[in-house]
Amino acid sequence: MEVKQIYALVNDATSEVLGKQDLVKEDLSNLVDVGTEIFDTNATDNYVKSLVNHIGKVIFVNRPYSGNVPSVLMDSWEFGSVLEKISADMPSATENESWELENGKEYSQDIFYKPTVSAKFFNKKVTYEIPMSFTEKQIKESFDSATQLNGFLSMLYNAVDKAMTVKIDSLIMRTIDNMIGETIVSDYYDTKTKTLIDLSTKSGIKAVNLLKLYNEKFGKQLTVTNCINDSEFIRYASYMMGLYKDRLSKISTLFNVGGKERFTSNENLHIVMLSEFKASANSYLQSDVFHNELVSLPSAETVPYWQGSGKDYSFASTSKITVKTASGTEVTASGILGVMFDSEALGVSNLDRRVTSSYNAKAEFYTNYYKFDSGYFNDLNENFVVFFVA
Question: How far apart are CA 73 and CA 296, in angstroms?
Fold first, then answer.
């Protein structure tokens, strides 16, 4: 073991803490050990200079990861593969002849009125597996006890669990991303050019450009860069989201891509916001009003990003999606602040997570195959609204 004398360092540190001297540049290379990937087997003791240093404690990096994605509809079943969703259209009203009686007129009642019923079928599944091999005899030579060995194996199992959680979380987020893309396409797709129009030029009814609406309503010139730090804009965004929450509770054809008669009660409403926007609202709105409940955003789950953080975790990266939707249109959009949707608008179906194992008797190791099958669906006939700035 390398031992360094640091009396000068601790004396200087004490003087700085007590305010007896100005700050000086300190060499911390003799204080902090950043570790090495390979242990020096020639390291000997500081007494007889011939005893090999032994490992005194082993720590396994074994912290569980639970993930953090919005709660969505998840279901599983054993037999069959198809998810069938049946809905009925609202019938039209006809004349009530009870109040239009005429002498001698025949009133026929033996007429069949067929209900308008439609069915949508979801029959796609995705799958992947994570294989990992474990030895029995060979690995025992690296540890001092069964406790250490079990700790090592527990760390490997946990690594697989974390990998599965990250992958499942990313698939759920991409299910939301696809619905965002489909909704933007519905409001911004130009059928003549077969491309998306510039998102900054207007606001849709389902894909709502809050910045465009705010600047036009109040004669402002806020930009994507500074709007989420502007308390007046955030107050307006909160106002609009509150309006949409109420609007979605009334039956309408306006808030889903399929144009179906739908409503979303508060119990079935999911709201997900970008955490940067939610944090900004908490800071700027609640700091300058007495009654926070009058201006606060609707209760919502938060996500740190929609698709990924990028390398810089900037707003431009976290608020962005760039996807080819399931319907085949390429969508790149940034400034996405939040979404509101019906609990039946998207989800995970026919979820099957399992582990199979095989043992190699010749080489004395066994392999676990962590398998995952599931279907991810978007129902474009259910309510879904996107709020963004452009």
Answer: 27
